[in-house]
Write a structure and sequence with these properties.
Helix content is 38%, strand content 18%. It is α/β, with parallel strands linked by helices.
Length: 312
């Protein structure tokens, strides 16, 4: 049975979906609305905002010009490093709004988390954000919280749009002959901009968070050149996944992106990758974002943390 906190979170999104709006907004107004709602959404369960433990350290750094943060929970090993790519639909999301999730992941893995503040569309369309992730990854390999120096291990995780960028980054690194992570994971990754996943229609009635018919608009904001929606760096499910490291994907049962995660894990397995997919019963999109208040979100995050920890 769903926890009271999860029930409240779902009810809040269902109420939003019922309210809707008949107002016609410009693209710029929609982007602004997305961005303004990020922090408000954290308060949807009893108005409870996340707080960091006083013994967690947060340090701002520049990775070859890309703004990032080291977020390190007490007891984490500074030489075991994890790049975290936040979500937000490629157009929103900030390090501030996701910092509690970075902390929770540092605690779950015992690793130092480098959170990358990649450039967002539409001001900085594809491939700007992906380029920043490549830069941050390569920098992290030889720089840690204590300065220059190689780490013992390097891992990768992403959330939603950050899950998309996680897989795109893996493909870029492999294609360019750059070092790959020991293991990678993604929460509810969007992997197919053609919207071919069956869950896009079959689970729409279950999903109070994402409207599948908004995906084309998001693509138009993210990709502004002639890159097709089937390009592997945009829709990784269409890529050759051969040679990727072990991967774990978690997706909620009640989300239209469910099969995006399932399909890319199936494709990875066919390519010989050690890949695992888990459906989270009753959960909506990226419930892990509310790990500070929804126990199911924290449980999922901790399971992913244990997976990454088990691979070095």
């Amino acid at each position: 049975m769903a926890s009271p906190q999860l029930q409240k979170l779902i009810a809040a999104f269902e109420a939003r979906a019922r309210e809707g709006t008949d107002e016609t907004l410009s693209d710029a107004e929609i982007v602004a609305l997305y961005r303004s709602g990020t922090d408000d959404e954290l308060l949807l369960v009893d108005g409870i905002a996340p707080t960091l433990s006083p013994d967690t350290t947060v340090t701002s750094v520049l990775a070859e010009g890309v703004p990032c943060e080291w977020v390190i929970a007490a007891g984490a090993d500074a030489n075991r490093r994890l790049l975290f790519i936040h979500g937000g639909g490629w157009i929103a999301g900030t390090l501030n709004s996701y910092r509690h999730q970075f902390e929770a992941m540092s605690r779950a893995t015992g690793m130092a988390v480098l959170a990358v503040d990649y450039r967002l569309a539409p001001e900085h369309p594809y491939p700007a954000g992906l380029d920043d992730c490549v830069t941050a990854w390569m920098w992290m390999l030889n720089h840690g919280p204590n300065g220059e120096g190689a780490g013992k291990t390097a891992h990768l995780v992403g959330d939603s749009a950050g899950g998309n960028l996680t897989f795109a980054l893996l493909l870029r690194l492999r294609d360019e002959g750059k070092p790959l992570p020991v293991a990678a994971a993604a929460f509810a990754p969007a992997t197919d901009f053609t919207c071919a996943s069956p869950s896009m229609t079959e689970r729409q009635h279950l999903d109070p968070f994402i409207q599948a018919d908004n995906i084309d608009w998001i693509f138009s904001q993210y990709v502004q050149d002639d890159t097709p929606p089937t390009h592997p760096y945009v829709s990784p499910v269409f890529g050759d996944l051969t040679g990727l490291p072990p991967i774990l994907v978690h997706s909620g049962e009640r989300e239209v992106l469910h099969d995006d995660g399932l399909r890319i894990v199936q494709a990875a397995k066919q390519a010989g990758v050690d890949a695992t997919f888990k459906t989270l019963p009753g959960l909506i999109h990226t419930t892990e974002y509310w790990c500070h208040v929804v126990p199911e979100g924290l449980q999922s995050l901790n399971e992913v943390g244990a997976f990454l920890k088990s691979h070095g």
